[in-house]
Write a structure and sequence with these properties.
Length: 212
């Protein structure tokens, strides 16, 4: 039975978020709000938790997982970033963007793409998630919360509770999210002198990236 933390969307209660962090550190998978939709998250270095996260979503190891980072400096620890890539990242973070980058040695091989050795990274601007990341003091491994038999992400924490309460350690309820996916951009070509590749247009503005 999962715990259900109702937090204020602008001023989340530290006491509740610290309880959520304790569950993450024990290997729990949580449902959390983001600046696009709700997501499943777990501790990056916990293989069993990552396997459980994939099992809940019913995705295999070829499905790109994402690292949620507090800021750009943290993101740069987990990806190989050159000056051009860094300038673009700086213009778009925090925000509703997911960037595909070459994973650094800090990223366990089991969570990067098995053939490309890439990882999706993002710096969200959702206040509750930023506070959770701060208390956790490390990135979180994440994937959009889409039920196995559905096509769209889940946005209602009460529906998430009804559907997944026996599979999740906790659900953080901060109200509904925008329910629009992140803009996904592959920055790996930039490291080879080419232009970034838009993989999915979403909530993040393309104009900010110079793609619109």
């Amino acid at each position: 039975m999962s715990q259900f933390f109702e937090v204020h969307p602008d001023n989340p209660q530290a006491r509740l978020l610290k309880q959520a962090v304790a569950l993450l550190q024990k290997g729990g998978v949580l449902a959390v709000p983001t600046d696009s939709s709700y997501a499943l998250v777990c501790h990056l270095d916990d293989k069993a938790a990552a396997d459980r996260l994939r099992r809940i979503r019913q995705v295999d190891d070829k499905h790109h997982l994402t690292l949620l980072c507090r800021d750009l400096s943290e993101l740069a620890n987990y990806a190989r970033v050159d000056n051009r890539q860094y300038r673009l990242l700086k213009s778009a973070t925090p925000g509703a963007y997911t960037f595909v980058l070459e994973a650094s040695k800090e990223v366990p091989r089991r969570v990067s793409h098995p053939s490309r050795k890439t990882i999706g990274l993002r710096v969200p601007e959702h206040r509750v998630l930023q506070a959770l990341l701060s208390f956790h003091d490390a990135p979180l491994l994440a994937t959009t919360l889409i039920a196995p038999d559905e096509a769209e992400a889940m946005n209602d924490p009460h529906e998430i509770r009804e559907r997944f309460e026996h599979e999740l350690a906790a659900i953080i309820d901060a109200g509904a999210c925008p329910l629009e996916p992140t803009t996904v951009v592959d920055l790996v070509p930039m490291g080879q002198g080419e232009e970034p590749v838009l993989l999915r247009a979403g909530r993040g503005s393309l104009r900010v990236l110079g793609l619109g």
